[in-house]
Amino acid sequence: MNRKKTIGIIAVAAAAMIIAVCVYLMQLSSTVAGNLMDSVEEISRHDVETIEGSLDDSYARLGSVADRMAVYDVNNVHEAQEQLNLEAASSALFNAIYLLEDDGTLYSSSYVRIDADAHTYDELMADGREHFVMLYDDANGKLETTKESLIFGIRLEPLVIGDRTFVAMLGRSDLSAISNQLVIESFNGEGVSSVVNSQGYYIVSASPATDLDGRDNFYDTLEAGRIEDGVTIQDVRQNIADGKDFVINCVTANGEDLVMSFAPVEGTSWSFIMAVPTEVFDERFAPFITMTAGMLGAMVCVVTIMLALIYRFIKQSMQAQAEAAARTEFLSNMSHEIRTPLNGIIGLNHLMERHLDDREAMAGYVGKLGKAAQYLLSLVNDILDMSKLQAGKVELVHEPFDVRALIDNVCQMQREPMADRGILFDLTTKGLPRPFLVGDEVRISQVLMNILSNAVKFTPPGGTISMNVSQTVVASGRQATTTISIADTGCGMTPEFQAHIFDVFTQERNRNSESQKGTGLGMSISHLLVEQMGGLLKVESVLNEGSCFTMVVTLPIDPAHLDDVPEEAGEVEGLTGGESAAALGGVRASASEGGVTPGGDAPANADAVDAAPNVSVSTGAADTDVRADVPVDAPQEGPVQLLVAEDNELNADIISSILTEEGYAITIAENGEEAVRAFEASPEGFFAAILMDAQMPVMDGYEAAREIRALKRTDAKTVRIFACTASTFTEDRNRALESGMDDFLTKPLNVTVMLQKLQAVKEELS
Amino acid sequence: MTTFDQMLACSLTRRSAVALGAAAVAASLLPLSGCSSSSKDAVHLVVKVPRTGHDVVFDEDISQVETVIQAMVDDFVATYQGAPVEAEVVVFEQNQYDDAVVGSFDTAKAPDVLYGDYFNMSTYIHTGRVVPLDDIITTAIRDDIFDHLWETSTIEGRVYMMPYLSRQNVLAYNKQMFRDAGLERYIADGEITAWSLDEWTEILDALAASLPEGSFPMMMYAGSSQGDTHIMTLLRSAGSSFFDEDGHFNLSTPEGIAALRWIQDGVGRGWFPPHAENLEIEDCSSLFKNNQLGIYMVNNASIGRYGDTIGLVNFPGPDADGCATTFASGFEVFDNGDPEKMQVAKDFISFVYGSEKWLDYAAGTLPASKAVAERYGDQILAFDLFRENADNVVDFTGNNPDTRAVREVFYPCIHDLLMGNATPEETAEKIDNLCNQAIDEGVATSTLHE
């Protein structure tokens, strides 16, 4: 998954989460606000009921006074007033009590007589109502007080005292005396209730005025601020006058946001108001926000941790699988590499047993036996080196040496392989002012040899290998940094492989390389050695174009040569290109002459191959006569023809020798591709069987078997193909059978078994 | 949920979201706004005044004293040469002195300046918060204020209140009732007359005998503490000094007991409305205005509403001239722990007393300033009458440190006396004990500002 796609998925997931959170918060806010509004309305209902109950109680108390007045022994209005005085004095509610005569005259408990034309209180019951309550306003007639008061009134059954008839009784209460009972705080004191009359004057207020002159008006308060959502003061007035339940959102003159809930008080023109600061809603909502944020944060943390753990587990699992695969591959390689020389040794042993008396043949077999043993030794040395390096037990020596001689030696050692493969070699020394250094010459040689031999191994014939050597003296003058680059025009490496080239057990299978021999330890050993020297080994490579390995090491200058005059910069030290060509046995010269492979006497170009009456599939050394041309005609009477695909020259020779002695005719192919070409070029039924090595360069045995089986010729499906491999694991056997091979011959070859199986083939043919 | 509720919910959500976003912006701007605020260095002055009626002879638009105070403050803020001042005038109700003053101590609403009546304000001097003003009283100011007002403003030799105006209380009688009762001879136009106690008794008896049912000779009330100073003044009727030399109540004397007995006898003789112990001063005011009461108290500011229907007479007193009471009003300055604010508050007082214009606004009643009296005396109703009567003024506070506590225990004693539940002797003893206890407790807790 690429980076952009990953970022896109994360962004979409984050956006989805944010939208989900927003929707959740909106719903939460709506629910909380709804619940709070329900609370406000419930408190309002409760308060209104309290007020209505209080009013009913007041009417009842006034009615009780009236009842008692009817039974008191009073003969005239003055005695009645005295009785009212006592009633008022004993009342916790009324400051004054009044009797309203049928002619409109009002008589108070404080003996004041108010003529009908001086007040209008009688008009308040003109509509037939049985009782009323009003906020005292001297517009209805001045009473004995200037204090904010409530006037209660009840209709009387005509009460006759002396020669006067009274039709109503009024009670006056100081508003401050009762409003405190009606002020109900809510929301921890932040919500305040009040009651206003239709004119907007407060009946109940949190900070009531005590004097008519000082009373506040609710509408003035609203006007000083503002009402939101398009509601006007006139709307509020009308709603209160109509006795409606409603809610407004307003801002006071002090800038306080309030939610006001209105509810009518039954039997009055009053409206109960519950004012709650908006911030109360926000405060109630805040814990939910905090809890939600905390919960989401915790969830994100948990999910992140879980994902991290899963990712880590998967990564570890993949790494373990990769390591296991690498080990399996390493073991497979090691098995192959060890069994290959062992195979040769066993084969040679078989041949030597049969030719004990043939001294010349024995000499050749013994020589080949020595090579196989030498390879086994180098393999074991590599493994031991690797183990020591990993355990930190390799101790480098610090002895004077000559870099020029070291390079010369390394190049000399690869002279023959390069000449054999027709590879051009170019050595350039850009400046080597301090050739005498102190260090581990052997190990440095080992690293360079490994790199150079790899270059030779992976560079195709006609390719080029360039070695560049340069050096700079560090500021102290006592050390020199030597840089040696070895570039080839080989198969190159994939970027993925480059990243792991110095890892242990790593060896890229490259079908384009001519060889994949080796344990895969060489580069690891080289890297660890250079690292231990305090140097740097790096690689740059382009697939199918080539690789360049660079070793940089800083080593002390040999004290014995500190006083030497440094060579001039740019001066070629050691082997020059021309000299190197000569020193290397004319590698460059022979290459520059073109087309002539050093030491090769077989036709090397395709035209020559095509022109030959028989297809030559041998491109390697032609020191064996078993590499025969394949006839293009139909099978003829004669020895049974076998195709042996084997990249190891020694093994190929040995198998060829054994089978030739048994009467078989052998055609050798160095890799799978050559084997396919050889089979394809042969007449149908020419080859009785194919001995196919599994691990080969260019094309392995499995692929070659599949291609042969896929050929459109009658014997493609019937030719017996034996997998010959040092890999003995079950999966390798299965893999061979799945690729179309018929049987399996393990390396080292059991000659008897091999001959028995081939004999069976021969008998089938006959 | 109603549409409004939904709207509210959405609004809250929007607010929450906006608040979250705005919080970061606000947080980043906060330091800037803090630095750029010009009002941060302004001195915030809180001036408190109780809602009080007030007339000014040359300005008919004035009906409340808080209007005058607000104008003074505005003028001061506009012209003050010192530090920038933001002033707030807080108006409160007459019965909320303690809430407005003591209740707001150590808050942002604590008063720096208080305008009010001395008998309410004097208590706060003993909290230790009211600062002496001697340092701003120049010779000119001292000479300009009437001496008797300095006396009521001074405690232990230091001036704690700046008098602005005063009102003198005397009694008023309904001339028509007097005529109806055959008491024409006691009607004295154009003067504040005085009657001996015997004459008072004769007049009240005559009124009681002649007035129709529903009308009464004289005010009397004990339903609350309101107006109790007038009842206290009546207790001097038999020659009692009321207070002893230490400012303690001293009614358990023959003169004091005689005055109490005179009142208690009056109940039986029909001088007062029945069950007057349940009445309040406002009841008596209504009766007097309604021509149902013969004698009631007035002051120089309120006589205008009665015209020529009433005559003026001093309370019965220890001598033939009788006595009157006076109520001073003025300013106090509080120390709330901020020397700069306190200085600005004092500067405000100096500004008022250095301003002829603002001193003139006392010209509606009796100005504290002699110069204002000189300028507007001829326009102030009955100014000369009350000025001449100043010699008969008696102190009804005794400079006691907790006037309101005394008032709370005084009126129940009179209530019992009127009901006949206590003898004059018992009442005198009870008044002395309870009121002096309140005074002593006030003294014990008194702390004067150093």
What are the SSEs and their pairings?
The complex is a heterodimer of chains A (766) and B (450).
Chain A: H1 3-71, H2 77-90, E1 96-101, E2 106-108, E3 113-114, E4 131-135, E5 149-161, E6 164-174, H3 175-182, E7 185-186, E8 191-196, E9 202-204, H4 218-224, E10 226-227, H5 233-241, E11 246-251, E12 257-264, E13 271-277, H6 278-354, H7 359-391, E14 399-402, H8 403-413, H9 415-421, E15 424-431, E16 436-439, H10 441-458, E17 464-473, E18 479-488, H11 495-500, H12 522-532, E19 536-542, E20 546-556, H13 577-583, H14 587-592, H15 606-611, E21 641-645, H16 649-661, E22 665-669, H17 672-681, E23 687-693, H18 701-710, E24 720-725, H19 730-738, E25 743-746, H20 751-765
Parallel strand pairs in A: 15-17, 21-22, 21-23, 23-24, 24-25
Antiparallel strand pairs in A: 1-2, 1-6, 2-3, 4-5, 5-6, 7-8, 8-9, 8-13, 10-11, 11-12, 12-13, 14-16, 17-18, 18-20, 19-20
Helix pairs in contact in A: 1-6, 6-7, 6-16, 7-12, 8-10, 10-12, 17-18
Chain B: H1 3-36, E1 43-50, H2 65-79, E2 85-92, H3 97-100, E3 113-117, H4 118-125, H5 139-144, H6 147-153, E4 154-155, E5 158-159, E6 162-174, H7 175-180, E7 192-193, H8 197-210, E8 216-218, H9 228-234, H10 254-268, H11 281-289, E9 293-299, E10 310-313, E11 324-333, H12 339-353, H13 356-360, E12 366-367, H14 370-376, H15 383-388, E13 393-394, H16 403-419, H17 424-445
Parallel strand pairs in B: 1-2, 1-3, 7-10, 8-9, 11-13
Antiparallel strand pairs in B: 3-11, 4-5, 6-9, 6-10, 6-11, 6-12
Helix pairs in contact in B: 10-17, 16-17
